[in-house]
Amino acid sequence: MRDYWIEKLYECSKKPYQKYFKKNEPWNIDKTKLMNYPEESLGFKLGSFLYQNHFDIQEKLEDHDVIHVLTNTGVSVYEEIGMQYYLLGNGKKSLYLFMVVLSGTVFYPKRIKYFIQQYQRGKKAHAFYYLDFSKMLFMPVQTIQQSFKI
Questions:
Q1: pLDDT tens-digit readout, 56-95
Q2: CA 53, CA 5: separation in Å to the nearest integer?
Q3: Alpha-carbon gap, residue 37 to 55, rounded angstroms
Q4: Would residue 56 be called left, alpha or beta, if left means φ above 0 and alpha means ψ between -120 and 50 degrees?
Q5: SS3 for 7?
Q6: φ and ψ at 140, to 5 degrees?
Q7: What is the pLDDT of residue 98?
Q8: Are the C-beta atoms of residues 92 and 101 closer than 8 Å to each other?
Q9: What does pTM read for this prediction?
């Protein structure tokens, strides 16, 4: 039941967040085009991630799915929260991130060890959350992960 409520909160907050807080330009690419990138590239891996999870690219939120690919984070509700802990550890600070971390901690107190582990993983990595991933789609995922110690 708590997964349902967290997902509803996300759905209600996604559109205003995209419209009022995300100032970046949409990538103007779809997942079928991503599958034409080289197999080890970020673009191909992103396309594969989207297909495997039955997702489409969300305008102005493309980076979110890239972070999933780079950190090998799953898409369950608690893993999504864990990814925000990872980003917090990596240095990202935003109102949205703090809201997810706070609500996630309240709704999933038994996952606190996992959340702390993700935070520590993020701290160990070089800061990468701010990169323009749209310019890195041809780069091999492994190269990005090694360069930033992800």
A1: 998 878 999 999 999 999 999 999 999 999 999 999 998 8
A2: 20
A3: 18
A4: beta
A5: helix
A6: -65, 135
A7: 93
A8: no
A9: 0.87
